[in-house]
Structures are given as C-alpha cells and as structure tokens.
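Provenance and format

Records in this collection were gathered into a single text stream. Each protein contributes a sequence line and a token line. The two records reproduced below are adjacent in the stream.
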Amino acid sequence: MIDPRRLRVLRALADHGTVTAAAAALHLTPSAVSQQLAALESEAGHPLLLRKGRRVSLTPAGDLLVTHAHVVAAELERAQATLDALASGSAGQVGVAAFASAITQVVAPALAALKERSIELSVRDAEGHESVRLLLDGEIDVAITEEHRTTDRFTRFPLYTEPFDVVLPPGHPATGPVDLAALADEDWVVTLPGNPLRDVVEMACAQAGFTPRIRHTSDDFRAIQALVAAGAGVALAPRNAVRGVPVAGVAPLRRVVAAVRTGSEDHPLIRAVLDELRS
C-alpha cells in the first residue's frame, strides 16, 4: 500500500524540481527525501523518477501519481477541516501571506476584527507568486495573490480588482490619461522575471504595439517608484501599490484573490478569515 506521507515528498519534488529544494521545503535532509522516494517507488511498483546526474525528473507513472497525490492531499485537508469543525474550533492562529498593498487594503483591517474573536493572524509580506509557493508548501494557510494560475490544488475567493497606472518621472511631458504607445521609446522599470505582474506589463505594451526596453527590475514597488522618481524610466504599477497617471483607454487590471489549499476552505478558522478578508 502506498504511504500518503511519501506522496507529500513526491509532490514537493514535482513543485521544486530538485531533491535539495524539495528537502528544504519539507524541512528534511536530501538523503531522507531520496530514501522516501525510493520507498515510494517500491510501494508503487513502478519507476517514478528519471535520474541524470544530480537532476531528477518524473516518469509518466510519476506524473500520474502526482495527480492522485493532489486529490489525496485535498481529501486530507477536508478531513482535518471536518474534525476541527466537529471540535468547534473557534480560536487559534491562521498564517496569511500577502503583498504590501493587500496587507494595507484587506489584511490589516481583517486582523483587527478577527483579534476581537480570538483569531490571530500571522502575517508574512510576500509577492503573489511567492505566497502561492508558501501555500503549497504548507507554510501558510491563506495566500493573497493575483489570479494568474489555474490549478485544482487551491481554491480562490475574489477580493478586489485594481487598475494599473503609469508611473512617470518628474517633469515628464505626458499629462492626463497616458497612451502606452507614446511610451514606446522610454526606458522601463519592471518587476523581476517570474512575477506575474511583469507578464501584465509586457502584454499591455505588446497590445500597444511595442516591446518595453527594460533597464531596471525590482519586485518592491517602493523601489520602482524611487527609480522612476530618479529618472531611470517609466513603469506600470497597480494603483494601490503606487499612485500614478491613468492609462488611456482600457487599463490592465490586477484581480486579487485569497487562495487556500483545496479542502481547507471548510476549516472553521480559515472560513472565518476568508469571510473577514472579503468583508
């Protein structure tokens, strides 16, 4: 019989790509992860891994088992939520990760309201894509993130939508709503590769008919604002992160959601936090 605890190790390997990274996420040693994976292969009766030097990839059987592992994990989350509901868990701590402006907009007000109900939030400042990794690794319970990934491993609850504004250096000739096409010859300050907000900016520029000339990168919008103010270039940023000049026509949007691991949404504490965040 397959040990479901070893399925968690296989999922971590699929998520992180290497034994070392999976071990770090699971707070285990690489040798312990390798031993668990070898035992899982024996239990499954199929080779699950392809090893090339230090690199490891999944076989078709490994990919199939990861899919089933997601289902098992969701059911275990539901089982825990049901048991906690049975115990009428009405007080405790919930881990939340969110980017800075979402902490200001929704997390901090929710924290104050939940504290009166003996529910404590443990808040971590993390960009949306990073909070998703923390959620899948089990380090937090709720991730405030952009609606950019499609997976049945977590369930989303819409919170708010905000437009992107153009951030311009002092004395820039553009005034009022800015046509992005007019910024085709400018240097740009954007987020780092892998941040979904960078994809939004590049897509908006492509729709305006040009590829942005990227000179500077940062995932901290205070840094982006400072670079623009110093004349390093222009930027597009979500309105709640940096107040800029509206985009002419249809502005790109950031749709912000609260995400939880599928199955955990029925946990009484998590449900209370989700309700307060949406409120």
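Adjacent record:
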Amino acid sequence: MIDPRRLRVLRALADHGTVTAAAAALHLTPSAVSQQLAALESEAGHPLLLRKGRRVSLTPAGELLVTHAHVVAAELERAQATLDALADGTAGRVGVAAFASAITQVVAPALAALKERSIELSVRDAEGHESVRLLLDGEIDVAITEEHRTTDRFTRFPLYTEPFDVVLPPGHVLNGGPVELRQLADEDWVVTLPGNPLRDVVETACAQAGFTPRIRHTSDDFRAIEALVAAGAGVALAPRNAVGGVPVAGVAPLRRVVAAVRRGSEDHPLIRAVLDELRS
C-alpha cells in the first residue's frame, strides 16, 4: 500500500527539482526526504527517480505517480473541506498572497468586510509567480495571480481584467494621447525581471508591434519602475492599476487576474467565504 504522506514528498520533489529544495518546502531535513522517497520506491515496486549529481529527475513511473498524487491531494483537500463544512466552521484565518495593486483593489476591502464575520486574512505581498509557488507548497490558501500562471491543480475564480498602459517620462512628446507601441521602438525600456510573467507580456506586445525592446533597467517593484521612468531612464508598459500611464492605441495587452485555490479546497467554508468576498 502506498503511503499518501510520501506522495506529498514526491510532489514537492517534482515541483522544486532537488531534494534540498523539496525538504525546505516541506520543513524537513534532506535526509528525511531521501528516506521517504526510498520508502515510496519500495512501496511502488518501481524506480521513481533518476539521480544526476545534486539534481533528481523522475522516471516515467515517477511522473505517472505524481499525476495520481495530484488527484489524491485534491481528494484529501475536498475531504477536509467536507468535514469542516459539516462542523459549520465559520471563523478562522485564511492565508492570501497577492501583488501590490491587487491588495489595494480587492484584498484590503475584503479584509475589512471579513473581519466583521470573524474571518481573519493573513496577507502576503507576492508577485503572481511567487504566490503560485506558495500555494503549491501549502503556505497560503488563496493566491491572487495572473490567469496564465495557474495549473490544473488549482481551481480559478476570475476577479478582474485590466489593460496595460504606456508609462512615459514627463515632457515626452507622446504624453497626452493613446500611443502606438511601434512609436517606442527606439526608446530605452524599464521592465520587470526575468521570470516575472509581466515581462513576457511586454516582450510579446513589442514583438507584435514589430520590434524588440531595448531593455536598460529592471525591477519587480512598480513604484521603482515609475520612479525610473520619471527620472528619464526609459519608458515602460505596466498594468493600469499598478502605475498610471497613457493608453495604448488599438488593442492593449491585458492582465486577467484570478483568485486560485488548491483543487478540492474551494468547498472549505472559510475559503469559500473569502472567495465570495474577493469576487464581490
């Protein structure tokens, strides 16, 4: 019989790629993780891991078992939610991670309303890709992120959609009206760091306009991006709620923002209450 607790260890290894990183996510020692994985291989009766130095990859049997592990995890989440609903749990704490403008737009108003119902939010400021990792690792209950960052291990609830605007230095010749992105082909650019999904949006939008942005400065903090642009360091493309700017002419890139929860947990009474308040 396969121990479902060991499936959680295998999922963490698949998510993080090394025994050390998986151990950190699970708050275990690397030795304990290695022992759990060895025991799981014995239970499964198949080799699950390929070891290459410090990194570990999954065998076909390991990848198949991870797929089943996702299903088992979702059912366990659903079972816990059902039990909590049976107990009519209506008070407690829910962990939420969101990027700064989403905290302003939806999390802070929801926090005030939920507090009156004895539901407390524990809020973490995290970019969309970081909140997804926190949700996968079980460190939070709800991640507010971009729609395309989610996986089939999550259930998504749409919150809002916002366009990207062009951010220009004071006195720029294009200030005051809609801007065609191709007009910015010769400008220096301020963008988010590699790995941030918003950088992909900017690079794709520029490519569709026929050029590659000349990136001079990077930051994941939109206040810093706004300050750099104001200082004449370049131009930027940013979500409207993060930084005020000039509209893009024609069809602007969009950020679709969702609340994501681990599949199966959406029926938990506390999480359901938080999702309802965030959406309202």
